[in-house]
Structure formats: C-alpha cells, structure tokens
Amino acid sequence: MTASPLVLGAMMFGTTIDEDTCFALLDRFVDAGGEWIDTADCYAFWASDHGFGGDSERVIGRWLAARPGMRDRVRIATKV
After folding, report:
1. Residue 43 annotated among the catalytic residues of the structure
2. How far apart are CA 3 and CA 76, in angstroms?
C-alpha cells in the first residue's frame, strides 16, 4: 500500500455528522484514492449525547464491517 498524501479527519463523525453522511464521505474518500483516516477515542466527547467520546471510531467500525475487504485498503490513525 502506497501512502496517500491526504488524510480524512473523522472528528465529528457520529456526533454532528450523521452515519449516512459519514459512510458517504468515507466511500467518496476511498474512491478518490484516500487511504488514511484520522480519529481518536476522545474526539468530540463534548458533542456526544453521552459525553464519553468514541463516536467517530464506532462509525468507522460499522462502515468497515459493512464493506468487506475495506480494512485492507485503509489505514487508521488513532490516539489514546
């Protein structure tokens, strides 16, 4: 896999951006040759209903589960 110069930031995925839109953005990003997705468990904790974070990672996980083989095509940068 060759590293793409673009990284998609997923900070507001699952909070202010609904899942259908997130999936569409992720699909379009990969279709355009994107490989890196940036997320973190603490992203947008203040914008979530529960205040704990992890929303963006859960959306990305559901997107990956819905697209067999996609995990081999993308890289995920996360922080703890």
Report:
1. yes
2. 12
Exposed/middle/buried for residue 31 (C-beta within 10 Å: 0-12, 13-18, 19+)? exposed
In degrees to the nearest 10, what's the CA dihedral of 49, 26, 7, 47?
A: -10
pLDDT digits (tens, 9 = 90+) for 33-79: 999 999 887 766 666 677 677 888 999 999 999 999 999 999 998 87
Between the CA of residue 44 and those of 13, 19, 38, 55, what are the distances in Å? 9, 15, 13, 8
- Nearest one of 40, 69, 72 to 56, comparing CA atoms: 40
* Candidate list 14, 29, 39, 43, residue with the active-site label: 43
Query: Around Cβ 57, how many Cβ atoms within 10 Å?
Result: 19
